[in-house]
Amino acid sequence: MTSHAADDGTSDTDESRDRCETVTTGESSDADTSANSSAPPAADNLGQNQSQNQNHNQNQNHNQNQNQDLSPNLSRRQTIRASGVLGALGLGGIVGGLEFGTNVGAAQTPDTMQCGRPDDVVHLDYDEYDEWNDVYRLSNGDPAALDLVADPTASGNRALQMRMQEGGHWGASTHYDFSDGLFELTGRVRFALDTGWEMTGRYPANCRLWNCAMALGEGSAGGGRPDGTNGWSNRLYITNQGSDPDGPFYLLSHTYHLDQNQDHDFVMEGEPYALGQPELVLGNWYEFEYYVCVNTVTDGAANPDGIVRYWLDDDLVYEREDLRFTTDHADNIIDSNGPAGHYGGQYTAPQNLYAYYDDHSMALNGAFEFEPC
Known about the structure:
The protein is mostly beta strands. It has one domain: Jelly Rolls (Sandwich). About 5% of the residues lie in helices and about 35% in strands. It contains one helix and 19 strands. The strands form four sheets. Strands 3, 5, 6, 8, 13, 16, 17 and 19 form an eight-stranded antiparallel β-sheet that branches. Strands 4-7-18-9-10-11-12 form a seven-stranded antiparallel β-sheet. A hairpin with a 2-residue loop joins β11 and β12. The chain is globular and about 50 Å long.
């Protein structure tokens, strides 16, 4: 992998949706809080690249999700979804008792609520786009750090390349936005680290690789503190913890939530919530799948039942089911996800570093695989 077109902290500074990480290892801050840079179509408007992707055999436990309670304060899209289910149940306007999760999609009935059927499945084929910013929105970093390249690829003719600049932190932070927000998101992407990737000069060192789920606001990044209404996030990092400077490397999950604004979990044996210790070998393509579901809310209080799960090449490697993200189901749910690159915080990239992405798919408010309804 040497096709290079012309951050270890777990905190970097991004901007996000017109509302706009330093962990204990000593990194700087990265805030994702606004949406003014580049604005490709949001999920609701990008129909030409959507395809049902139901042929991928995976662990049937991927999306066994607890039912959750809707807040009475709903956006227009959420109200439409809720009223359809409530009407079928004969509950009229009793919104407070409605359950959501993998069980509820648009135009569902009592017979289909338990099958995990998503509202929609989106597949982004990079071959169909002229520029990366036709696909994602940039919130922070260097637009020149991103390019669609012909080599290497996982499939098709082009992949997305991300460059972290020598002596700097960025990369870039990008977003595929959901215009009305999601209660749950299942995402899948293939990624690879270039064969020349090194994490020297600092131990441990971390580099953000992906925004798994974000409610955009000052509480989602940059050392901000989530208060239940002002944003939250979960991000995937690469770490040299327990490794050599030239790898193999490991995964790190980093979350801004109500109980800790920069909570990081190494995906390594003996660590809480880790179900394995997958090694990342330079030059290899990996399929990363992630599932994030917001917590329930009771009488305005967040319950500790928000979920984050990671799979690598079909193996469940990380599972956490005790998170409190939000107290506001109307305006503080899942706004976006997408590629990101930020090296360090109080330290910088030792050289130009390149990561590659391909085959990004998303199941909105559901799962890729679901039971017949």
